Predict the 3D structure of the following.
Amino acid sequence: MLLIIGEPGSGKTTLLKYYAMCCLTEGANQMLGINETMLPIYFPLRELEPDEAYPLPLPENLARWAGRHVLNISAETFRDWLHNRDTLILLDGLDEISELAQRKRVCEWIDNTAQGLIRARFVMASRWTGYRKADGIELAFDHLRADVKPFTPDQQAEFLKKWFSAVFSREYHDVNVPEAEWQQLQEIHALKKADTIIEYISDKKNKHLRELAAVPMLLQIMAIIWKERDHLPQSRPELYSAALKYLLDYRDRRRNLNPKLPADKAMRVLAPISLWMQETLIADEVAKSTLHKQMQPTIKTLDDELSSQSFCENLRDRAGLIADYGEDRYIFRHKSLREYLTGLQLVKDVQQQERLNKLVSCFGDDWWEEPLIFFISEADDNDFDRFMDTFFRADFSRELSPESQSLLQQMVEEASQRKIDSLVRLLKDRRIHSNKRYRQFIDYLAGQQTELADILSPDIYGSHVLKVSLKIEGFTEFIGEDIKNWPNILRSEYDEEKRFKGDDQPVVGVSWYAARAYCLWLSLIAAKEANVESEEATGWFRLPDEVEWEWAAAGRGPDDGLREYPWPSDKGGPSKNLANYDGNVGATTPVGQYSDGASPEGLHDMAGNVWEWMENWYDEDKDVRALRGGSWLNLDDALRCSARSNYAPDDRYLSFGFRVVRAQS
């Protein structure tokens, strides 16, 4: 079994459909590493029908789902296929099951189903918020996990060129131009259009757009908007707003077609409908007759002659915002757009304190995470303060889980109006902002930190690095002699990936060499500020060696023995309240977030979160460097103070970070 985890809009469903197409296309199954011919069966998990509280067997569920899509395939036929043919079962959208208890039952159902089908291979996809071990959501059946990574700049460019080529090749053909010549001209136009948006996104001043462009769905929205306007909004909410206005209105007006309702009025219908689906239906699909009845009163106030059925058919056929789901239901094509519309409606509704109280009570519920973030991003200064005031008056806010703390921090970062000084003081201790500080280092190397460059010339720093690198095996070959290349060589592999990029999170995806270069930079900056000769200070900041690290982590217990884990022995073994490990959160967490897991001496995150590079070699072979501490991905054994790991010093992995020690001068 393969478990696929990805962010909203990362292409999980598209990937499953690609797997299905590979199975159905002659010879393409080998691209998946499968030699035999396989029958693909795609099934959205929200469609599971229960037998009392537990889902029906897979053949019965497939037969009922097929029936809703006007396909007369019996449960017996599905059972025969599943037991007597090689099949690829594609299970989509665990996160779309809103109730936590039901999600647990579905995981158990998948485990039992997989054990009973020896010729089937399974793939399951979910947002990471829908699959968290800390919530008890976990597959017991043996499986591999793959996380959908954001698009790299090269992948973004490839996508945009192919997208514009496909779109331009399908435009109206000028009959006065020969077909071959017309296709050639269209390809030239497409590549020119793609090149301009690639250049725009790559511009240094558009860093936030580059982060958004790493999400395939958002990149496609960008392409749609760029094709018409040659301009892009700068934030995710603005991007969604522009996309909705384009789909609902602008595209048709360019073709001299009048939309059923202008975009602003259409959104006045869709926003309350989206919130109603969010909190009443708790689903992304709805019966057509129910939807018509629910939206008709609002439509009537906007256009007395327009029927809700006609409006919905236009949303389906022209705007492409919703789609038929079987014969008698509609579904939003993109869940994220419905969640954005829900956030818009919440902004209007929270003027009533009772409604605000209800919204605050949804905090921490996976089903509400994206709507809450969109709400905060659209709320004005006053509503933001009212939400936070209500939030911190709630009893549950006194002891927030690490996941809830991360969500709260993300909401603060999304807020468009930021009068939050008092909130920041309430939420955070004074601590090193690992990612933030490391980015300053990379920006310094790229010539974007003039104040730091005034303290320490990059050329002087570069000469010190090259001098030090001569004494360390492999360092010179790794870093090269041209400082202009160092920002790309030393930057984090995951700097723009949402799970790892928070200012308070530890930097990950950096090599041992990069950690050493950073320590040298800190030392030389400190020397300049202290008016001390650089040569005397090159070791002021450095990586710890294993003896130092284990002494600090294990300390001394009450019987004068070493602790097994960094926290006091009476707290027992690892748990989700003491450390970030075993994929419980699905990402790194801000430094110091697990205060209960701190050592008696006050050291945080000595177990879990990230493996920490050590100064010393792992063994006498001197080809790999040691790491300590375990990470957010590892099982509890790796969290013991005595646990060790090793990797080559040029490796950059999503669970590798480092801790800096200040040597006595």
